[in-house]
Amino acid sequence: MSSLPDRQPGKPTPAAPNSASGPAAADGTPDPAELARAVRRLADRYRHLSESRLRARIDPDGHSDDTRATLGLALARRLAALGDAPGGAEVPDLGVFAVGDQIAVTGLDLVRELEGAWGEPGAGGALAEALAAVREVAALV
User: Fold this and answer.
1) What distance lies between CA 62 and its chain's CA centroid?
2) Residues 29-61: pLDDT tens digits?
3) What angle do the packed helices 123-140 and 32-47 form, to 10 degrees?
4) Which residue among 16, 89, 128, 141 is least crowded, i.e. fewest CB within 10 A of its CB?
5) Closest alpha carbon to 104 in 62, 66, 48
6) Rounded CA gap, 21 and 77, in Å?
7) pTM here?
8) 40 burial via Cβ count (<10 Å: 0-12, 13-18, 19+)
9) 107-131: per-residue pLDDT in tens?
10) Is the distance from CB of 45 to CB of 101 less than 8 angstroms?
11) Measured between alpha carbons, how far is 96 from 101 in angstroms, rounded to an integer?
12) Distance in angstroms (rounded) separating the CA atoms of residues 44 and 63
């Protein structure tokens, strides 16, 4: 289920902040362009990882079996869920080399949805949640 507000036909939506104005609006909230930049950077990082690094556990000394690939796939699924993914649809596991592309597709689809819903209730919250999730994964990869 989408966490974005329902758009009403015929009702204009405010434009997203201009990305040229910087990474955040005047009130300090991020704009969709900031999410797009973060998604592109992380997707590129994933695309350049070797298979052994993609399959390596994030915390080899800890109790978690999460690898960089499983973490990236979980992020792609979370971004899809924040957006307008059909109910019950899940991003499939297409293998470790597809994770970067899956992050890019789901993340940039969400950016487009947020730009269309900018100014509507819930759009800012979805943006903040997505940006925090991308930054969290980027810090671990």
Assistant:
1) 26
2) 678 999 999 999 999 999 999 999 999 998 878
3) 30
4) 89
5) 48
6) 30
7) 0.79
8) middle
9) 999 999 999 888 788 888 999 999 9
10) no
11) 10
12) 28
